[in-house]
Amino acid sequence: MQKALIFSAPSGSGKTTVVNHLLKTMPETLAFSISVTTRKPRPNEEHGREYYFLSEEEFKSKLAEDAFVEHEMVYQGLYYGTLKTEVERLWAEGKCVLFDVDVKGGLNLKKQFGTKAKAIFLKPPSIEILMDRLTKRSTEVEHMLKERIAKAKEELSFEDQYDVVLENDVLGETLKNAEALVKNFLDQ
Ligand code: 5GP
């Protein structure tokens, strides 16, 4: 059966760590949905691995072709979207598709996929810890950091709309809980 696992969380909640751990632990079963973005690649990122990095013009032409399952302007002037072809490709491989998207995108996917999907909200233990993690990450310039902090605060209010809330306090435990949750969903 076609299945989808949707992970959303405020920036700085440890979402990428959890998602990468699951992909490494269950490579035969899970596959990452590579999104399109118009933001520039970070030094360690590769086109076709973390994202498909497109220009705004290319993104808009995909939009005109109705190529996206969902898309959002996640940050000012920066677009992100999930391609229909990406989801179809991974389902055709018999994989459960794993999404790392913002809260609005996550709820949008959940609405479209219905019972095929489990939507998981990863929650930082406290707003103070979240701010601390975001500030230390320093991959963003100052004005982007401020925008990310503001968005993270807003995103925290969406947890009630998710199927499961997973608190990321002690990382080792979070990873174990995430694994158990995913296995349980896959066995259903
Ligand atoms: P970053 O720029 O840090 O990689 O991602 C910023 C935010 O955009 C994260 O919350 C990430 O989950 C979200 N995001 C990544 N891909 C997509 C997508 O295809 N759609 C939506 N709605 N959000 C996405």
Tell me briefly what this model is.
Helices cover 44% and strands 23% of the residues. The protein is of the alpha/beta class and 188 residues long.
Bound compounds, each kind once, are: guanosine-5'-monophosphate
Structural class: alpha/beta
Largest sheet: 5 strands, parallel
Question: Which percent range describes the beta-strand content?
Answer: 15-25%
- Low-pLDDT regions: none
Radius of gyration: 16 Å
Molecular structure report:
By secondary structure, this protein is α/β, with parallel strands linked by helices. 44% of the residues lie in helices and 23% in strands. It is built from seven helices and nine strands, in the order E-H-E-E-E-H-E-E-H-E-H-E-H-H-E-H. The protein has helices at residues 15-25, 56-64, 84-92, 103-113, 127-137, 142-155, 171-187; strands spanning 4-8, 30-32, 35-37, 51-53, 68-75, 78-83, 96-100, 117-123, 164-167. Strands 2-7-1-8-9 form a five-stranded parallel beta sheet, with helices on both faces. The chain has a four-stranded mixed beta sheet with strand order 4-3-6-5. Helix 1 (15-25) crosses helix 7 and helix 5 (127-137) runs antiparallel to helix 6. The longest helix has 17 residues, at 171-187. Bound molecules: guanosine-5'-monophosphate (5GP). Residues 11, 35, 39, 70, 72, 74, 80-82, 100-102, 105 line the site of guanosine-5'-monophosphate.
